[in-house]
Amino acid sequence: MDLVYDVVVVGGGVAGVSAAIAASRTGARVLLLEKDMSLGGVLTTALVNPMMTFHSPARQVIGGIGQEIIDRLVSIRGSYGHIDDPIGFVKSITPFDPEKMKSLLIEMLKEEGVDFLFNSFVLNVSREGGSITSITTVSTGEENRVNAKVFIDSTGQGNFSIRGGAYYNIGDGSPSSCQPMTLVMRIGGVDREEIASYVNRNRDDFIISEHTDLSYLGIAGFFSFMSRLDDYGIYFKRDRLLFFEVPYNPGQIFMNTTRYPGYANRSKELTDAQTNGNIDVWKFMDFLKKEIPGFASSFLIQTGCHIGVRETTHIVGDYVLRTGDLIYRKTFDDSISVQIIQLFLQSEPALLQPQPAWLQVLLQHLL
């Protein structure tokens, strides 16, 4: 089947949904293609939670459609909105319910008149000169040829751009340097009062903002317990637990603790990471129940549909963001947006900038 649109967005995460809505509001006819069976990307399929951060130390710098999504989540009790980060890693965090996020993003696309297709993969890319003119998509039992004036890559890993011939780098210079993957767990039956009490009595065992009152649990710590992971035959190694409460779901948390090395664009390495995560999860639950205060009655609700991938390829745009741009807050006269970035250099891990200011983004970064 031949399809014709003004704009095609490949990838249905929050970035892709926002791009599709923005394009539709200009009057364009828009199609969004998503490989999974829901919208939201890693926020919903990999349970990455909370979002961070909409704020610089001084003020909110991210708004627009992103803030519209948060406002609507708040209105349906799907988020508390922006709250101070209890760990102090960034200025604010935005916890949310991923199931409500899935439904909301569908509603927003429908309201804006955006067409979307799930279970859709880009098979081939056709170009004339330096421009993509059409793509072939494959789904269960069918192929479609999609023609458009503009194609937007919101895959998160740049896979569509690479198919279209874009140059790219990998990790911090090689596949082995990519940041590790994480299988996030949603856990219920957690005694928040016992955890808060333990944290207050043992604050040296945690990274915690001096301003937090633990009315919302965002926990990085239990350092003194983590050497016991080996006793449970757990594959991953970590020096801390990291977890956050699920809004409006008492006793539930998102556990973001596992770490698995690998280059996710190699299917064998991605499979190994996912496999180790699926095997570790029950051993890890046993560890939590037997060792960690507040988890004695805990139980696993779900894991992410797939492991969370932090880093693979970096598309080389017309302008490449450099470390100095971040450290020295380089400004540009022709920026199109701002972003908050917590700088972490894998080659120099000591270079961690606490509470970064906003960074200007150029259109040339994205072309």
Show the helix and strand layout.
Elements: E1 2-10, H1 14-24, E2 30-33, H2 42-45, H3 64-75, E3 83-84, E4 92-93, H4 98-112, E5 115-117, E6 121-128, E7 131-139, E8 142-153, H5 159-163, E9 168-170, E10 185-188, H6 192-201, E11 206-207, E12 218-221, E13 241-245, E14 253-255, H7 267-291, E15 299-303, E16 313-315, H8 323-327, E17 335-340, E18 358-362
Parallel strand pairs: 1-2, 1-8, 2-5
Antiparallel strand pairs: 3-4, 6-7, 7-8, 9-16, 10-14, 10-15, 11-12, 12-13, 13-14, 17-18
GO molecular function: 4 iron, 4 sulfur cluster binding; metal ion binding; oxidoreductase activity
Pfam families: FAD_oxidored (PF12831)
InterPro entries: FAD/NAD-bd_sf, HdrA-like
Keywords:
367 residues, alpha+beta, FAD/NAD(P)-binding domain, six-stranded mixed β-sheet, six-stranded antiparallel β-sheet, 8 helices, 18 strands, 24% helix, globular
Give me the number of helical elements. 8
The pLDDT mean sits at: 92
What is the spatial order of strands in the main beta sheet? Answer: 5-2-1-8-7-6
Care to count the β-strands? 18
Helix fraction bin: 10-25%
The proportion of strand residues reads 15-25%
What's the story with the biggest beta sheet? 6 strands, mixed
Question: SSE order in H/E notation?
Answer: EHEHHEEHEEEEHEEHEEEEHEEHEE
Category by helix and strand content: alpha+beta
Shape call: globular
User: What is the radius of gyration?
Assistant: 21 Å
Measured between the Cα atoms of the first and last residue, the distance is: 29 Å
> Which residues form runs of ≥5 with pLDDT under 50?
none
